[in-house]
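Note to self: keep these together.
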Amino acid sequence: MVITWYGQSCFRVQSGSTTVVFDPFKKSIGLNPPIGEANMVLVSHDDDDHNNAKSLKGDPFVIDSAGEYEKQGIRVWGIRSFHDNKEGEENGLNTIYTVRMEDMVLCHLGDLGQKKLTDEQLDAIDGVDILMIPVGGDTTIGAEGSIEIINQIEPRIVMPMHYKVKGLKMKLDPVDDFLKEIGQKDVKPQEKLTIKAKDLPKEDDKMEIVVLKL
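Structure:
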């Protein structure tokens, strides 16, 4: 499995000939949208920085709501959540996605704004290997809030997203705030994450933080 990041909350996950893209964005946010083909596109909510499935070719299967799905051997669970900490009163709903590929479970939190996950959400998210989590604040959880969510989910690998990068027109906090909060200031960004299930940190190992370059 190869995971690359395009900025904001957009990741491309490549498994053999199958490509899954999370939260593709529009050019209006100041970054270059993902291009190329995809088999599946997962959209956490209907904002310009998350909903540009049309930028991808190949007639992908688009999922934009809670539920259970399966396509080409990939199982996806969409879990209803909130884009704020007031049960959606300010910013509406958000969909958390868990995806099973290559005997690994990926979880993408979208624009999660809840300070804490409910027991029902945690039951649905259970067993996460790789967690993609917003850390830049504003309408999502920030550095401090992300630690609470990470402690609830207990993933093996954490990949921060939705933070300040060069060119982005949104006002978000930098990833360094998160790295300081979690106590791993010396993490070196890498171009992509190439990983197999056997390479995941063991249960007794320290959780790994992976920062991807834009």
